[in-house]
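Re-running the complex after MR caught last week's input typo. The corrected sequence lines follow. Everything else is unchanged.
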Amino acid sequence: MDFSDRFSIPPHDDPMLYASIVAIVLTSIAIVVGVTYFKKWGYLWNNWLTTVDHKRIGIMYIISALLMLFRGGADAVMMRLQTAVPDNTFLDAQHYNEVFTTHGVVMIFFMAMAFIIGMMNFVVPLQIGARDVAFPRLNALSFWLYFTGAMLLNLSFVVGGSPDAGWTNYYPMAGPEFSQHVGVNYYNWALQISGIGTLMTGINFIATIIKMRAPGMKLMKMPIFIWAALITNLMIVLAFPVLTIALLMGTLDRQFLTNFFTTSDGGMDMMWANLFWVWGHPEVYILIIPAFGIYSTIIAAFSERNLYGYTSMVASILAISALSFLVWVHHFFTMGQGALTNSIFSITTMLIAVPTGIKIFNWLLTMWKGKIRFATPMLYSIAFIPLFTIGGSTGVMLGMASADYQYHNTLFLVAHFHNVIIPGVVFAMIAGLIFYWPKMFGFMLNERIGKWAFWNITIGFCLAFFPMYFTGLNGQARRMYTYSEATGFSTLSMISFIGTLLLAVGFVFLVYNIFYSYRHAPRNIGGDPWNARTLEWATHSPVPEYNFAISPTVHSEEAFWDYKENDYELFKGKVEDIHMPNNSGWSIIFAGFFFAFGFFFIFHVWVGVIIAFLGIIGCLIYRSFEKDDGHHIHKEEIEATEKELGGAK
Amino acid sequence: MKLDPKNLPLEYSTETNKLNILGFWIFLSAEIMLFATLFTTYFVYVDRGVGSGPAGAEIFELPPVLIETFLLLTSSFTIGLAVHAMRINRVKAMIWFMVVTLLLGAGFLSVEVYEFIHYYHIGATLQTSGFTAALLTTLGTHGAHVTMGLFWGIMIIIQILRDGLNARTANKSFIFSLYWHFLDVMWIFIFSFIYLKGMM
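Corrected-run output:
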C-alpha cells in the first residue's frame, strides 16, 4: 500500500461516511463557535479541562461514556438494520466488519469502562468521607488518557479505516497479512493509551480506599459499593498489564513484522487469544462488580432496609474476582486444547454461578418485607434480577465445554453476553446515574419520563436479544453480514431489529429527560432527596468542592442512616481550614502528546513519533521538577459557603 | 519493616509521602504482572516458537550476561547504600552512591546494547522467529525500564543538589530505590530462567 494511501479520507467510497465527515466537521465548528460566542473558554478551561476534582472528573467520564453509548448504539442500529431482512445490501461485508468491531470496542472500552470509572470517581471519595482521591493529578491524567484513546478510535472511521477483526481482534485475521489497512493499528494504540489511564485509575483508587477512609470506617464497615470498587481496581491492576503486553506484541507484529501471532516461523496465533482473554475475562468482572455494588446500594435504599447478608456479599465479590482469573479458556473451548483442560475450565466457569447466585438471593432477601419504593433506579434494579439470572443461566450453558461446540460463535453467545452486560452493567449505570443525578447537579430527573425510558429500554432489550437465543441455537453464526431467506431467520431477525429501535427510543427518552428536567425540575432539593443510607447523602447537593465541611466519623456501613434515625452524631469536631489540590493543565497537554504519538505511530510517521515522544518526556521532566503543594480553603470561606447552602453539615 | 510511628524516616513524614509510597507499591504489583506476562510468553515460545531460527543455546554467550548481572546486582547494592546514607542524613554520600548506581546502570545498558548488536549479526533479530521476538521483547522491556530509571535518577539527583534533602526529595529517592531494586529482581529472573536455563 502506498504511503499516502494510508491516509485516505474517507477509507471507503460510501455516502454515509461522507455524511459523517460533514456532521463531525459541522459539530466541531458549532462547538467552537458556541463556546466562543458565549465566552465560555475560560470557564471550560478553569472548571473542567484543568480540574483535579474527583466529582468533575467523574462527570466528564460519564458525559464521555454517554457520547460513546450513542456512537456504539448507532453502530448497533446499523447492524440490526442490515440483518433485519435477508440478503440486505445496506452495508457491504467490509463495512459490516468495521461496524461490529467498533461497536464492541467502543461499548466495552469507551462506554462501559468509562461509565464505571466515572461512577467510582464520583461516588467513592464521598462514600468513604474523603475530600478527594489519593492522587488527584494522576486522576485527571487517567481521564485525559482515556479520552485520547476514545478520540483516536473514533478518528479511525474517517481517516484510514476502522479496525475490522472483531473487538477480540484475533490473529492471524488481525495481522498485517489479512487486515492490511491501518484499522487494527488504531485498535492497538487507542486501547494501549486508554489502558494506561485505566491502570492509573486502578492504582489511585486502591490507595484512596486503603488510606483515606473516614475515621471509624474499618474494612468490614465499608459500604458495599466501596468493597466492589476496591476489588474492581485490584483486578484492573492485575489484569490490564496483560493487555498492555498483548497489544505491544500485536503492534510489533503489525508494524515491525515480528512473528508473535503469525502462523510461520514459530508464531502462535492462539497466544493472542490466550493473552487477550487472560485480561478479557477479568475485564468482564471489572465491569459487573461495580454494577453489583450500585444495585446493592440502590436496592437497600429503596427497600428502606439494610443490605441482607453484608458479609456474604463481600465474600462473593472476592470469590468472583478470584475465579474470574481462572476461566479464560472457556472463550475458545473449540480450539482443541484437549478434554482435560476444557473440563477444568468448564468447572471453574460454572463455579462462578455459586457466588453470583448468593448475591441474587441477598438482593431478593433485602427486598423481602422491605418498604419498596418503585422509583426509576429501583425499577432498573428489579428488572436486573430476573434478566441477569437468565443471562447467567445461559452463561452456565455456554460454560459446558461439550455443549459449547454447538453454541460457539453463534448468536446464542451474542444474546448471552448482551443479556449479562445490558441488564447487568448498562441498567446499573443508568440506575446509578439517575440515583446520583441530584447529588451531581442539584435537581432530580423527571420520574414520569424516566419510566417511559425504562419500559422502552427493558422491552426493547428483550425483543432485541431473546430472538438471538433461538436463531443462535439454530445455527446462525455471529458476525455474518447477511443470510439467505431459506435459513428461516428473517422473522426473528426483524423482531430483533424492532427491539433495537425500541432501545434507541428509550435512550432518546433518557436524553430528553435530562433536557426537560434541567428546565423544569425544582432546585433546593436538600442533601438527601431519596432518603438514602450512605455518607454521600450527608453533604449538600450539588456537593461543594471540599465535599464535607467537617470530616464525618463512622461506626457502621450505614452511618448516615443511623445519623437520621438513631441520633448518631456524624460530624464531630468543627470547621477547619481544608487543604485542596491545585488545578493543572499539565494532564491535558500530556495526553495531547500521547494523542500525537499514537496517531503518528499508527501511520508510521517516525518524525512525528519522535517529536511527540520528546513532548511526553518533556512533560515528565516538567512534572518531576514541579512543586505543587495545593492550596487551603479557609475556615471563614467554608462557613460562608455552608451558610449559603443551608446550614453546616 | 515495622516503622516507629513517632519517629518516621523523612520519606514517610507526610501524608502525601505515605500515599506516594503505597501507590508505588501498587504500581509495582502491576509491573510484576507485566513481566509475568512476558515470562509466560517467553516460556511458551522458548521451545515451540523457534521455527527455522536459532534456539537459545545457539545464541547465548555467558561473558556479556555475567558482566551485565554483576553490574546490575552491584547497582542494587549501591542504591541500598544511598538510601542508608539518606536515613543517616549524609547527603553527599547519598548523592555519590546514586551517581555510582546510575553509572553501573549505564554500564549494564551498554553491554546489553552490545549483546543486541551481537544477536543482530548472528541472525537472531526481532523478526527471525516467535522465540527471538519473545526474547528481545522481554529483554527490551527490561532495558527500557533501566533507561527510564537512568533519566529519572538524574532528575532526582539534580533536585537533591538544588533543594537538599527534604520530605519531597527523600520521598522521591526512596521510591526510586524501590523501582531500581525491582528491576534488579526482574533481572535475576531473566538471568536464571532465560539465560542459565537456556544455556543448559
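None of the earlier attempt is carried over here. Chain B has a mean pLDDT of 94. The domain at 10-199 of chain B is CATH 1.20.120.80 (Four Helix Bundle (Hemerythrin (Met), subunit A)).
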